[in-house]
Amino acid sequence: MRVVSSRLTPERTDELYAAVLRLLTEVGYDRLTMDRVAEESRSSKATLYRQWGGKESLVVAAFDAHAPELHPVADTGSLRGDFLELYRTFEEEVDPDIALAGAVIHACKTHPSLAESLHERVVVARVAVLDEVLERAVARGEIDADAPAIPFLVPALVGPAMIRELIERKPADMAYLTAFLDAVILPALGITTPA
Questions:
Q1: What pLDDT score does 91 carry?
Q2: What φ, ψ does residue 40 adopt, rounded to 5°?
Q3: Neighbour count for residue 29 (Cβ, 10 Å)
Q4: In the CATH scheme, what is the homologous superfamily, with its name and number, of domain 68-188?
Q5: Correct CATH for 10-64 of 1.10.150.130, 3.40.50.300, 1.10.10.60, 2.40.50.1020
Q6: The pLDDT value given to residue 193
Q7: Looking at residue 170, what is its pLDDT?
Q8: Cβ distance 165 to 171 under 8 Å?
Q9: Which one of 63, 82, 92, 125 counts the least CB within 10 Å of its CB?
Q10: Domain boundaries, the chain
Q11: What is the pLDDT of residue 3?
């Protein structure tokens, strides 16, 4: 959900959010100031405070707007098919920004309030999409509700898409994500033969 005032068009808000994320990446959360955001985005500091109240709310709103919007995944009839649909959405909407991810992770480690706000506004809704996919797989009898791998699925699913380019200098394209799904994720859930 984006915070937009009558004075800021959606396009202007997107520009402002882009400036916030660029500064967050360049200088880090601690050195990011509302003055610097106002200067970088050609906005008044008063407008920023009126709209977002402070730095934390502005950063959370900017990150939320930047994060992929994961909609409910169509029921394909199999967990593998549902995961592939999820990956297709992820692949289409995400251009992994390792520097931004690093800045956000560091900020969350040193600012628990920011971590909680990001979790509530950005993470929870997106994890709910994965939970729905898993609940369908349990209902179909494909996996056990208490499969030991379930608590590790979110980082296991997101990680390859985010860091393959950093580690291997190659994009996490659909062929790679499919191979990862078949070799790692499905076997970890007790599914040994792709549907």
A1: 62
A2: -65, -35
A3: 18
A4: Tetracycline Repressor, domain 2 (1.10.357.10)
A5: 1.10.10.60
A6: 65
A7: 77
A8: yes
A9: 92
A10: 10-64, 68-188
A11: 45
d(CA 91, CA 157): 12
What's the pLDDT tens digit per position in 71-87? Answer: 788 899 999 999 998 88
Instruction: Specify the pTM.
Output: 0.73
Which pair of tokens denotes residue 11?
């396009």
- Spatial contact of 58 and 52, defined as CB atoms under 8 Å apart: yes
Q: Are 131 and 139 in contact (CB under 8 A)?
A: no
Q: What confidence score (pLDDT) does residue 52 get?
A: 94
Write out residues in the chain with pLDDT < 50, as ranges. Answer: 1-6
Q: From residue 140, how far is each of 95, 108, 129, 136, 180 by CA, in Å?
A: 33, 37, 17, 6, 23
From 143, 112, 127, select the one nearest 68 (Cα to Cα). 127
